Amino acid sequence: MIRCDELTKYFNGTRALDGCSFEISEPTLTGVIGVNGAGKTTLFKSIAGFLKPTKGEVYILDEQAFQNIIAAQNVMLTEDGMSFYPTASLHELIGSYSRFYPNFDQSLAIKLTEYFRLEEKKKYNELSKGMKSTFRLILALSARAPITLLDEPTTGMDPGVRKELFELILKDYIKVPRIILISSHYLGEMEELLDSILFIHEGKVLKHDDVEEFQTFLTGVQGAPKLIESLEDKLQIYDCKDFGAGIRRIIVESKDLESLSLKEDVMNSLTFKGVSPEDAFVYLTKRKGGGIDELYHS
Amino acid sequence: MKALKGSEPIYIQIGNWLENEILSGRVNPREKIYSQYKLSEIFGINPATALKGLNLLVDKGIVYKKRGLGMFVSHDALNILKKEHKNEVLTEQIRGLVAEAKLLDVSEEELIYMLKKEMRKAMQHQTKKGDDQQ
Amino acid sequence: MNSIIHKDSQMSVAFEQFKDKLYHNSFAFFQLIALQALGYLFSFSSSMTGIGDQHFMLSIRHISPIPLFIMSVIWIVVQAFGFSGEKRREYYMVSNNFTAYFSDIAVLEIYAVIIGITMVFSGPMLQLLAGLSSGYPNLGTTYDSMTALHYLSLFITTTFYALLFGAGAYFLGILRSRYQSFLVIGSIAFILLLITWSLLGIRFIGPGFNIGTAGVKQFYVQETSIMLWLIKIIGSLGALYGLSWLAIKNLEVNR
After folding, report:
1. Helices (H) and strands (E) in chain B, counts
2. pLDDT band at A256, cuts 50/70/90?
3. Which residues of chain A neighbour B45 with C-beta distances below 8 Å?
4. Contact B10/A215, CB-based, under 8 Å?
5. Which CATH class is domain A219-274?
6. How far is C125 from chain A (nearest CA, A)?
7. B7: nearest CB among A194, A211, A276
8. Beta A28-33 vs A196-201: how paired, if at all?
9. B46 touches chain A (CB under 8 A)
């Protein structure tokens, strides 16, 4: 349903996307994770058909997405900067959207608007930042579009509301399975919701896999400094840290570690720790070099 | 909604939780076990992840799928689980014992002797309990 | 998948947008009424300007409907310019440049027809207002001689002129959206159009043609043959619509 083929997008010389490739054809709740500026929003806008690829292509239902009305009616994108008729009330906006998205569930939208205490008669611009995010999400979920793109859906929301909204996304996904992509630079709060993660870094897809793969991708190896150092040149190191009590810890790829086939006595003198996807994400996007530690010690 | 903690992948935690439900008798052999959607609701997780957890039990033969009806606990489940726990958990504990013994310079014969003594004590305690109950 | 995939045609989406735009811009009609009220006010203070003949306005004594028409044109120009703005296109998620363009033009057609209709009623309206203010001045002969055909031609001419102004404003607005620098592009476009008109004007009217805005007015207003006038108008509209489409075709929506 969605297929990106070496998707590249330049803006005034900046490469927002640089050869992005992936494919999704089954219902899924996929997290699109990346740092600010990694290209997530540009990717979503390209999928929605708003932007024209500089190089490569993005296909929706086997048609090129840009300016395609078939792509447009089956994709719903919600993001911070989207605008609505300034004179329209929330109620009228719900009415408008329901006419354009055939799957739209109006009664759901109204129920949710009431539940989250948004006044239907108010205009969109009269809402606070968090309420705007809530309304956009209500619109996006009610639309029941086969491809739903949520760009940082919880911007500005109170923590309690955030939790509820993620619950809402999960519930609605179970009720009407479809492709839902949620972008965020903070994986922690939505990890449990997801079945897959699309990891974007510097405009490319670094990894697209099941959540479980991300949970076991990296391993923390801890032990005596000399022992750890002897391993370091055989492995790609994502992070290393020296703890006071003569312990050194490095972060490496699990499969690299396995292929080393360490002897049992070596294994027994090392401690292995799992790395959560959230932490893995931090290590994978870290700047090269010593980091804050080095800054303070030099 | 139940909270999940621990650094293990979620589907493994689900698998462990399900095994405990069976071991503790909250779900019995031949009964229907939680569906992926029910688990998704209980824990607030993606149904695909919940399914992965269920499939761990399917792979072990503890749970099986009846087409159109759902997932059921196999009649053999308790045996399989106990055996597995014996192998894994007990082995883990024995390993710990052996390491400790080594540290304290306890010989193999001494260790076996201590083990037998404890087992006899437990047996007597069991029989005494049985006598009292009669 | 439970979420049903739809494959509606562009035209059905364009029609949906057309209805939605009319609905959300309904307050524009109040703006028209307000501007026309102003126009009526100016009508009373204008002096007789006889442009005469059946292709344009009738002026009655010291009351002229021309200011009314000018106000209406201002209205449609502002509306058209608004429709061509980038923000307006952002309001529609299910859209592409074709549906946006098509529905915009369709709405402008409706607006122009409304202007035409209000102009047709301007005569009786003016008589009424004149009567209320200065006790029925002799509007007499000129309005008496207005036949149904006169009213029809009034309707057609005002509608088409309104359309023309609207199309021009829309085109300039699209250019601004595309090139972000109105002054430069607008001026270039204006000069090019002037040149085109002048060339056509010289061809049709002959050596008496003035280059400049007066000449452009002359091009349309001094036409005596109905067929030729229609061709000029529809041709110009076609050109403006075509150019607008070329300018909007590959525009991105980038907030």
Report:
1. 6, 2
2. confident
3. 170, 192-193
4. yes
5. alpha beta
6. 32
7. A276
8. parallel
9. yes
C-alpha distance from B67 to closest chain A C-alpha (Å) = 20
Best residue in C5, C8, C20 for a mutation probing chain A (most A CBs within 10 Å): C5
Cα B60 to chain centroid, rounded: 12
Instruction: Please give the model's pTM, rounded to 2 decimal places.
Output: 0.82
Average of per-residue pLDDT values in chain C? 79
pLDDT higher than 60, residue C50: no
> Under an 8 A CB cutoff, do B49 and A170 touch?
no
Q: Which residue of A has its CA nearest to C248?
A: A67
In angstroms, the Cα distances linking B26 to A142, B21, B45 are: 38, 5, 22
Mutation test of the interface with chain A: which of C1, C2, C3, C6, choosing the one with the most A Cβ atoms within 10 A?
C3
Instruction: Using a CB–CB cutoff of 8 Å, tell me whether A212 touches chain B.
Output: yes
Binned at pLDDT 50, 70 and 90, residue C52 comes out as very low
CA atoms within 13 A on the CB side of B100: 8
- The complex's ipTM works out to 0.84
Phi, psi of A208 (to 5 degrees): -130, 110
pLDDT above 60 for A168: yes
3-state SS track over chain A: CEEEEEEEEEECCEEEEEEEEEEECCCEEEEEECCCCCCHHHHHHHHCCCCCCCEEEEEECCEECCCCHHHHHHEEEECCCCCCCCCCEHHHHHHHHHHHCCCCCHHHHHHHHHHCCCCCCCEHHHCCHHHHHHHHHHHHHHHCCCEEEEECCCCCCCHHHHHHHHHHHHHHHHHCCCEEEEEECCCHHHHHHCCEEEEEECCEEEEEEEHHHHHHCEEEEEECHHHHHHHHCCCCCCEEEEECCCEEEEEEEHHHHHHHCCCHHHHHCCEEEECCHHHHHHHHHCCCCCCHHHHHHC
Q: How far is A265 from chain C (nearest CA, A)?
A: 52
The pLDDT value given to residue A47: 95
Give me the torsion for CA of A227, A228, A231, A236, rounded to 10°: 180
Contact A100 C99 (CB under 8 A): no
Q: Which two tokens stand for residue A161?
A: 């509301």
CA distance B21 to chain A (A): 21
Q: Give the whole-number percent of chain A exceeding pLDDT 90.
A: 56
Contact A206, A284 (CB under 8 A): yes
- What does the domain layout of chain A look like in residue ranges? 2-214, 219-274
CB spacing of B46 vs A273 below 8 angstroms: no
- C96/A74 CB distance under 8 A: no
Assess whether pLDDT exceeds 80 at residue A247: yes
Confidence band (pLDDT; 50, 70, 90) for C94?
very high
pLDDT in tens, B32-84: 999 999 999 999 999 999 999 999 999 999 999 887 788 999 998 899 888 88
Please name the helix (run of DSSP H) or strand (run of DSSP E) that holds residue B63, with its range, or none. strand B63-66
Contact A22, A82 (CB under 8 A): no
Contact with chain C for residue A24, Cβ under 8 A: no
- In this complex, do B9 and A216 lie within 8 Å of one another by their Cβ atoms? yes
Superfamily for A2-214? P-loop containing nucleotide triphosphate hydrolases (3.40.50.300)
Q: Which of A50, A54, A171, A180 to mutate to test the interface with C (most CBs of C within 10 A)?
A: A50
Query: Mutate which of C26, C93, C96, C252 to test chain A, going by most A C-beta atoms within 10 A?
Result: C93
Q: Per-residue confidence at A21, pLDDT binned at 50, 70, 90?
A: very high
Q: Mean pLDDT, to the nearest integer, of A253-279?
A: 84
Name the minimum distance, in Å, from the CA of B111 to any CA of chain A.
Answer: 23
pLDDT tens column, B106-122: 888 999 999 999 999 98
